[in-house]
């Protein structure tokens, strides 16, 4: 419940802009973090279709920081004052920091993905197969390349894989012949396996046993069919909530300059997921 009695004239406003945003898990995570750290701030969800006016609003209302989600992650780049070099390379901003009126854009999706993997393994020199070539793939692959991994991108529409791979110096293919690709880590960045199609797999089951680690960015359900089959094949697995949590942790730290209370945010996230129908 909102802590109205604690909101006063000095309360700092943060939020998320997107369309739709009603199901976002970010308000719960960030408000719990502000509360735990005793920071006088509130994080709200703004359902925004007119992104130009919304960016004007950040400036005029003095909103200190925003998460940016679909469909504004690309458009917003042209409306703010500075974009961090990795976000420029990814081609998407998911975080705005208002530095005394100077709007700085960053991308924490790649940080979330890299941190989630680095909890399990070193990434330098590792071979990674990434399935999918959408916006999420671009963030994940950029992060991996920055950490020194060798990335192969495989996508249903091969030309989209080619475009990302060419930009990042990776190899690419369609989804046929995935058994010919040698890698230690497999990452699904497609929506295959997401509710309601929870029994679908993005790759043939029989290739899973070759991987040490399998990560899925799908988090609804938390334990996707891919992760279940990967565990059965002896792989370590990383679920999509870990990346979601760790990208939010990175946002909190950019906004406040303080270490985020990760356990608090993780607890709220799993509680929210448990109550999601
Ligand atoms: P996001 O921003 O979450 O990455 P996206 O940009 O729409 O979302 O990308 C979705 C990715 O999932 C794409 O790589 C898409 O493949 P195509 O480029 O061929 O469209 C992939 N995808 C979605 N449904 C799929 C399916 N049923 N089988 C294989 N790949 C699928």
Short structural description:
The chain has 277 residues and is α/β, with parallel strands linked by helices. The chain is built from 9 helices and 12 strands. The strands form 2 sheets. It has a 6-stranded mixed sheet with strand order 2-1-3-5-6-4, sandwiched between helices. It has a 6-stranded parallel sheet with strand order 9-8-7-10-11-12, with helices on both faces.
Account of the 3D structure:
The protein has helices spanning 26-36, 51-61, 85-90, 109-118, 135-146, 158-168, 225-232, 240-256, 262-274; strands at 12-18, 41-47, 65-68, 82-83, 95-99, 102-106, 127-131, 150-154, 171-173, 185-188, 213-216, 236-238. It is built from nine helices and twelve strands. It starts with 11 loop residues before the first strand and ends with a helix. It has two domains: 3-107 and 243-274, 3-Layer(aba) Sandwich (Rossmann fold); 111-238, Rossmann fold (3-Layer(aba) Sandwich). The chain is of the alpha/beta class and 277 residues long. Residues 132-137, 155-157, 160, 189-192 line the site of 2'-monophosphoadenosine-5'-diphosphate.
């Amino acid at each position: 419940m909102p802590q109205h009695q604690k909101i006063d004239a000095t309360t700092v406003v943060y939020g998320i802009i997107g369309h739709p945003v009603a199901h976002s898990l970010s308000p719960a995570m960030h408000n719990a973090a502000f509360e735990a750290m005793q920071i006088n701030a509130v994080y709200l969800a703004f359902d925004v279709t007119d992104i130009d006016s919304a960016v004007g609003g950040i400036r005029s209302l003095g909103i200190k920081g925003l998460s940016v989600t679909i469909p504004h992650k690309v458009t917003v780049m042209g409306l703010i004052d500075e974009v961090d070099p990795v976000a420029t390379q990814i081609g998407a901003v998911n975080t705005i920091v208002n530095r005394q009126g100077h709007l700085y854009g960053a991308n924490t999706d790649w940080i979330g993905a890299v941190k989630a993997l680095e909890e399990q393994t070193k990434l330098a020199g590792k071979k990674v197969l990434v399935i999918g070539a959408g916006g999420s793939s671009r963030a994940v692959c950029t992060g991996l390349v920055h950490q020194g991994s060798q990335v192969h991108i495989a996508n249903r529409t091969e030309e989209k894989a080619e475009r990302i791979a060419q930009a990042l110096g990776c190899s690419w293919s369609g989804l046929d012949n995935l058994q010919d690709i040698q890698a230690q880590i497999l990452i699904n960045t497609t929506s295959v396996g997401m509710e309601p199609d929870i029994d679908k797999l993005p790759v043939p089951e029989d290739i899973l046993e070759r991987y040490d680690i399998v990560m899925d960015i799908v988090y609804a359900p938390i334990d996707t069919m891919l992760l279940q089959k990967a565990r059965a094949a002896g792989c370590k697995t990383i679920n999509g909530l870990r990346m979601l949590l760790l990208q939010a942790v990175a946002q909190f730290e950019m906004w406040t300059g303080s270490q985020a209370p990760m356990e608090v945010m993780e607890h709220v996230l799993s509680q929210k997921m448990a109550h999601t129908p």
